[in-house]
Amino acid sequence: MKKLISGIVIIAVGLFLLEHVLGQESDKRNYQYFDDMTQTFAYKTQSTNPHLKSGQTQQASIPGTIPRGYMPLHYGNSEAELVRAGEELVNPFSADTHVARGEVVYQNQCMICHGAGGEGDGPVTKRGFPPPTSLFSEQAVGRTDGQMFHIITYGFKNMPLYASSVDIDDRWFAINYIRQLQVNNLNEPQATSQAPAEGGKE
By C-alpha distance, which of 112, 141, 135, 116 is closest to 124? Predict the structure, then answer.
């Protein structure tokens, strides 16, 4: 027990002496032996840079270059461009793939207006927003995947654009899910009502 106490005392005294030898003071910064994390060699984005002609670290993109992970769309926001997109854009994913992901995208981004089942009866339509066309209408079913992609990207009439909130691949996945909804709706048996014949007995 005496050895343990002696050891603790020796260590405490040693630390005390070491602090005074190094000149450490409690009201001042400690020494930095490895300052790579605070004094980086790289220039910060908004800082000046003596090695560049403009004197600025942040530089404009080189003309003709594309940022990594970004795919430009060479279409404008007009009905003529909507038609052109329908003729040229092809869904890179087969219709039966990524449907589950498409459902997630639809529920998060589209359901608010188009409704859970695609009938155009989303929650916002109950609060004064003009209801969109049913996804099962002849007009909606007749649109190509390219046209739907263009509409999601740039918006159409009352529908806002979703280019900034829905990833490019997710737009195609949402289209696949909508196509699945349309197929399911087409295959559902339609309820028919038969009126009784006038003036006759069955």
Answer: 112
Report how far residue 187's alpha carbon sits from residue 183's, in angstroms, rounded to the nearest whole number: 6
d(CA 117, CA 102): 14
Structure-token pair, residue 99: 């449907």
Q: Give the per-residue pLDDT at 26.
A: 64
Domains (ranges, CATH) in the chain? 79-187 (1.10.760.10)
0.70 cut: is pTM over it? no
pLDDT at 118: 95
3-state DSSP of 33-76 = CCCCCCCCCCCCCCCECCCCCCCECCCCCCCCCCCCCCCCCCCC
Give the pLDDT band of residue 2 (cuts 50, 70, 90).
confident
The CA distance from 171 to 178, in Å, is 11
For residue 159, the cross-strand partners are 156
Q: Summarize pLDDT for 145-159 with one digit per residue, the tens.
A: 999 999 999 999 999
- SS3 category, 77: coil
pLDDT score recorded for residue 153: 96
Residue from 99, 92, 93, 81 nearest 150 by CA: 81
DSSP tag of 159? B
